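Following the same procedure, backbone shapes were mapped to integers, yielding the entry below.
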Amino acid sequence: MSAVTQSPPAVRELRYAADLTLADVDALEAFLTSQTDDVRRAHGFGNGVYCTVVSFQHALFLLCRELRDVFECDDGSRSALRAKFRLWNQLCGIAGPWADTIGYDSARWRRADGYDAVGETGSVRYRRKRLW
């Protein structure tokens, strides 16, 4: 009798900051670092391109570290969700130029539409109220 193996569940699209995981942060940081490492290595120390890439990688590290700090201190509050939303969308903004690159996970590495589904519903009601 052969063992039945199930394929892992399909990766669901990230829509809200509430859907974000540390694995998303780690994977996107690793992807961006791998995309820029070759460029950094190809240019000599002190070269303008080298300095630009090193600066980018440092900013990437700091942004991801701040996002990880939010996860570590997450108390389930709205302010933690707001911080995840803000930082993740910044990270996705700098990752945008690589969106058509092989290996880029466009289902997960996208800007969040809102904090969570509940917040989105409230936001839609608020916008409708303002318009009508």
Observations:
- Residues 1-11 have pLDDT under 50 and may be disordered.
- Residues 20-126 form one domain.
- The helical segments are 22-42, 48-72, 78-95, 117-131.
- The chain has one domain: 20-126.
